[in-house]
Each structure stands twice: as structure tokens, then as C-alpha cells.
């Protein structure tokens, strides 16, 4: 299952937050108090004090967004696309007997194919960033017969139900 977005703040949300900090810089120039700024911008006084220190040290440019958080991905865009293709092919295509991806298996595929080492937690973050989510397979018996179940539900279940 893939998420439509990778999660976290998008560029628009970062821009909105940066605009608030820029408004705070204007208020710093007007010598407004921390309490006044926090109340008007609806932020904490602690944030205003931190912004004021950064503004005093580097001006309005010091309040600019530093971009998306988190560490940089070890795989480039092309490698992530290749990994998505491999994951969509399934683990059987990579030599495993059952059809379940585990973090350890994905880490092994990344190591073999791209020569990049990932921890299990790093693989989890990578997959989430790529839009994959945790899936828990339904456990069903191999002997399960869907036709027999459907027939039982049609004929026998109404009599049992009453």
C-alpha cells in the first residue's frame, strides 16, 4: 500500500511557517515584546525568544526554512524507482520461497543490488518515504476452499442462524 504523500511537512506548509517567522522579524524591528508577538502570531513565547536570538545573530535570513527535515537518502531517485520495481515484482522473484517482504529481506536486496547498507529501521524509514506502509497478511489455511465456503453460507448458514 502506498501513501499519496511521503508524510511530514510539504513545501507549502514550510512556506507558511516561514512567513510567520518573517512577520516576527518585522515585529522585532518594531521592538514589540515577546508576549505581544507570541499572542499576535499565536505561537509560544519560547519560539519567539529562539527566533529573536537567531534574528539578532543573522537577521531575517537566519529565520528562513532550512528545508525538509531528516537525513538525506542513501539511494538516488533512479535507484529508488528500481527498488520500487523490485518490490512490486515480489520476494519470490528475488529467490525467497514465500511471498512476504520483511525489512531484513529489503535490506538484503538493497545491499546486493546497490551496494548500500541500511539498518532495519533505516529500511523502514526508506519504505515509508517511498510511500509503502506495513501490511499484515491474513493467515488462511492452504486447504481453504472458497467455493465450499460460499455454498455453506448459501445453504447451511440460514438454517443455523435461525
From TrEMBL:
UniProt xrefs under InterPro entries: Homeodomain-like_sf (IPR009057), Winged_HTH_dom (IPR025959)
Occurrences of domain Winged helix-turn helix (ranges): 98-154
Highest taxon of the lineage: Bacteria
UniProt xrefs under Pfam families: HTH_23, HTH_33
Identification of the protein by name: Transposase
Source organism per UniProt: Micromonospora fluostatini
Organism placement in taxonomy: Bacteria, Bacillati, Actinomycetota, Actinomycetes, Micromonosporales
Amino acid at each position: 500500500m502506498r501513501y499519496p504523500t511521503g508524510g511530514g511537512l510539504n513545501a507549502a506548509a514550510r512556506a507558511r511557517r516561514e512567513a510567520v517567522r518573517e512577520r516576527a522579524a518585522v515585529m522585532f524591528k518594531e521592538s514589540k515584546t515577546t508576549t505581544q508577538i507570541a499572542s499576535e502570531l499565536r505561537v509560544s513565547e519560547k519560539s519567539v525568544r529562539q527566533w529573536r536570538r537567531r534574528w539578532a545573530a543573522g537577521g531575517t535570513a537566519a529565520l528562513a526554512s532550512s528545508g525538509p527535515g531528516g537525513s538525506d537518502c542513501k539511494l538516488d531517485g533512479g535507484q529508488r524507482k528500481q527498488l520500487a520495481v523490485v518490490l512490486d515484482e515480489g520476494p519470490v522473484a528475488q529467490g525467497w520461497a514465500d511471498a512476504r517482504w520483511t525489512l531484513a529481506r529489503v535490506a538484503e536486496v538493497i545491499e546486493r543490488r546497490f551496494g548500500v547498507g541500511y539498518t532495519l529501521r533505516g529500511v523502514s524509514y526508506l519504505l515509508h518515504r517511498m510511500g509503502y506502509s506495513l501490511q499484515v497478511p491474513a493467515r488462511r489455511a492452504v486447504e481453504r476452499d472458497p467455493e465450499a465456503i460460499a455454498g455453506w453460507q448459501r445453504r447451511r448458514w440460514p438454517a443455523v442462524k435461525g
